[in-house]
Amino acid sequence: MAEKFIKHTGLVVPLDAANVDTDAIIPKQFLQKVTRTGFGAHLFNDWRFLDEKGQQPNPDFVLNFPQYQGASILLARENFGCGSSREHAPWALTDYGFKVVIAPSFADIFYGNSFNNQLLPVKLSDAEVDELFALVKANPG
């Protein structure tokens, strides 16, 4: 289980996408386990990898960029975590190393599941998120 925190400082990775659904966060073929560990390897599997087995990294996907390795804060656009209500999505994010997700809005079930799984979802205005994207892109890593 992840440690509780009241303040977090970390590297931010900009996932400039809206309506990121739970199927993208953790594809259904990896949902066979009921333990909370081992899902990070498959986080954004269909975006991070060019092959189904997760052997060939997609060089164009932001989580594979060297400057964002070890990031613990994910910056995204509106409606993050939409789609099915699988609790595996926050499991995958925390198992990968994320502690915080910042977005203008979250799907309701994902939002609740995040708190239950030591992932802090932070809602900011569209303008604030735009400003953060500009800052992170101007100063990667």
UniProtKB/TrEMBL annotation:
Keyword Amino-acid biosynthesis: yes
Domain of life from the UniProt record: Bacteria
Pfam families found in the cross-reference section: Aconitase_C
A GO molecular-function annotation: 3-isopropylmalate dehydratase activity
Alphabetic keyword roster: Amino-acid biosynthesis, Branched-chain amino acid biosynthesis, Leucine biosynthesis, Lyase
Keyword presence, Amino-acid biosynthesis: yes
Residues in Aconitase A/isopropylmalate dehydratase small subunit swivel domain copies: 3-126
EC number: 4.2.1.33
Transmembrane segments: none
UniProt pathway annotation: Amino-acid biosynthesis; L-leucine biosynthesis; L-leucine from 3-methyl-2-oxobutanoate: step 2/4
GO BP terms, alphabetized: L-leucine biosynthetic process
GO CC term, one of those recorded: 3-isopropylmalate dehydratase complex
Reaction(s) catalysed by this chain's protein: (2R,3S)-3-isopropylmalate = (2S)-2-isopropylmalate
Subunit structure: Heterodimer of LeuC and LeuD.
Family listed: Belongs to the LeuD family. LeuD type 1 subfamily.
NCBIfam families linked: leuD, PRK01641.1
Known function: Catalyzes the isomerization between 2-isopropylmalate and 3-isopropylmalate, via the formation of 2-isopropylmaleate.
Listed name of the protein: 3-isopropylmalate dehydratase small subunit
Organism: Escherichia coli
